[in-house]
């Protein structure tokens, strides 16, 4: 094996190892966001499903993990057609990743506005059931009311103190210090969308380098094979 094959082979291996790690991190990030959302569901009038982005991130992370894992194996075993097929899949992945990042950049404001509508509808349609949407919001995001606790004209619900029991007392020292659910829910999605954008850009750079390395190694192996046949 010449220096060209040796260098590009291990370069490709390192890039794919990084991609495997990033794929795992994307799966973890998407799972954490999905878990943070909990059982919340968007109303029929909402344009976006609040589970859409974390599910897309999990799926992309899984695909990146699988493709990059086989890329590592292909580089170590030096199979030319396998490397070319890997490069093709990596190109498709990179295009999908770019589309996701562009979508997050372009649709961020509309998506966040839809999240505000979800909280508004949840507050307007609240009831005394422990598992209703507003109580889930207040427990999950440690918030109280739409703007703050003053939105409740009477006594605040126990969920403002993080209690699931509908009859539990809620001390004022707890709920007065909590933000409104509109701000808490908005900040949650705003922060996580920022992580999605940063993570997506990092993955695109790694995928591009892996694509170049895969094509380069396949070219080196083809030239080496032609020299051996000559």
Automatic annotation (TrEMBL):
Positions of disulphide bridges: 144-161
Alphabetized InterPro entries for the sequence: Tetraspanin/Peripherin (IPR018499), Tetraspanin_animals (IPR000301), Tetraspanin_EC2_sf (IPR008952)
Entry annotated with the keyword Ribosomal protein: no
Top-level lineage group: Eukaryota
Subcellular location(s) per record: Membrane
Chain ranges passing through the membrane: 12-33, 53-76, 83-105, 198-220
GO cellular component term of the entry, any: plasma membrane
Main subcellular location: membrane
Membrane topology: Multi-pass membrane protein
Gene3D superfamilies: Tetraspanin (1.10.1450.10)
KW Membrane (keyword) present: yes
Pfam families tied to this protein: Tetraspanin
The entry's keywords: Disulfide bond, Membrane, Transmembrane, Transmembrane helix
Family membership noted in the UniProt record: Belongs to the tetraspanin (TM4SF) family.
The protein's name in its UniProt record: Tetraspanin
Protein source organism: Ceratitis capitata
Gene name tied to this protein: IM23
């Amino acid at each position: 094996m010449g220096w060209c094959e040796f260098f590009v082979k291990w370069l490709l291996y390192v890039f794919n190892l990084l991609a495997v790690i990033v794929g795992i991190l994307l799966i973890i990030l998407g799972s954490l966001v999905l878990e943070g959302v909990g059982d919340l569901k968007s109303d029929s009038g909402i344009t976006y499903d609040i589970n859409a982005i974390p599910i897309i991130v999990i799926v992309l992370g899984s695909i990146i993990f699988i493709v990059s894992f086989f890329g590592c194996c292909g580089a170590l075993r030096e199979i030319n057609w396998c490397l070319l097929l890997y490069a093709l899949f990596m190109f498709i992945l990179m295009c999908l990743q770019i589309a996701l990042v562009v979508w997050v950049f372009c649709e961020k404001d509309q998506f966040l506005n839809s999240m505000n509508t979800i909280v508004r509808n949840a507050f307007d349609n609240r009831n005394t059931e422990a598992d209703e949407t507003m109580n889930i919001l207040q427990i999950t995001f440690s918030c109280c009311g739409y703007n703050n606790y003053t939105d409740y004209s009477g006594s605040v619900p126990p969920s403002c103190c993080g209690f699931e029991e509908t009859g539990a007392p809620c001390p004022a020292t707890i709920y007065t210090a909590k933000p409104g659910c509109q701000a808490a829910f908005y900040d949650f999605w705003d922060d996580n969308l920022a992580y999605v954008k940063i993570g997506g850009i990092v993955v695109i750079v790694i995928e591009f380098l892996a694509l170049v390395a895969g094509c380069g190694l396949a070219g080196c192996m083809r030239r080496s094979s032609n020299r051996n046949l000559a």
